[in-house]
Recover the amino acids of this structure.
């Protein structure tokens, strides 16, 4: 699902934002990018903050080579 | 915008209601600019174009969420476990001095007759510079007039907030 569509769903719902956001499949990286550009105190910012809560960006840590 | 970092005195809180029955969506309840600010009057830091004050209320009631918990006991464990379960928003019973032509009280009275009208309400705490707003959608469930001869007449009404439809914002 596109982030913009997910924001639209969240912006127009009367249900719990937490409950709805958990059911929206979006890419965490796209959410993070959009959130970085969003202006605080806007409905987009509120929706993206909730989406980011359930779609955190995870960075993979390189595992060291085993020492023989 | 940064939240004010201070302990707020209770008497600065004021209560506002939407004049049209077009409740905000859940997300918009947490947006101050052009949303919640339009319901809050200029006396509390808002713009006030779409709202009216419930000016005659005696005190802003307790608001928030009730407690709901389930207790579990595990054999052999020293302590039991308490799990928060499905809770309810706190209903607000409000006493106001009764002015029969007060715009806010007339809206409340009509909503009580209906029982179906959703409206956005705002509790605003204002320190002269910053406003912290708790906005929620609710329906009126009770409206009574208490006109005992020893005191001024009172209007007593109860607002039942809709579940999950609340938001915090500030300026």
């Amino acid at each position: 699902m596109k982030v913009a569509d997910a924001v639209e769903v969240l912006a127009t719902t009367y249900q719990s934002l937490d409950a709805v956001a958990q059911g929206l499949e979006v890419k965490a990286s796209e959410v993070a990018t959009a959130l970085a550009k969003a202006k605080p105190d806007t409905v987009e910012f509120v929706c993206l903050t909730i989406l980011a809560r359930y779609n955190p960006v995870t960075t993979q840590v390189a595992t060291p080579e085993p020492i023989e | 915008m940064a939240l004010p970092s201070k302990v707020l005195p209770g008497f600065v809180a004021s209560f506002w209601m939407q004049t049209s029955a077009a409740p905000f969506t859940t997300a918009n309840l947490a947006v101050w600019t052009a949303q919640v600010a339009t319901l809050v009057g200029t006396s509390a830091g808002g713009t006030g174009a779409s709202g009216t004050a419930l000016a005659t209320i005696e005190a802003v009631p307790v608001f928030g969420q009730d407690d709901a918990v389930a207790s579990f006991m595990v054999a052999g464990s020293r302590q039991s476990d308490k799990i928060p379960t499905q809770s309810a928003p706190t209903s607000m019973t409000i006493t106001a001095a009764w002015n029969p032509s007060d715009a806010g009280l007339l809206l409340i009275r009509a909503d009580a007759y209906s029982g179906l009208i959703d409206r956005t309400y705002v509790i605003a705490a204002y320190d002269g510079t910053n406003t912290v707003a708790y906005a929620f959608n609710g329906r009126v469930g009770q409206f009574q007039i208490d006109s005992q001869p020893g005191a001024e007449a009172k209007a007593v009404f109860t607002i039942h907030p809709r579940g999950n439809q609340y938001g915090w914002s500030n300026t």
Q: What stands out?
A: Chain A touches chain B through 15 residues (CB under 8 Å). The CA atoms of residues 10 and 47 of chain A lie 6 Å apart.
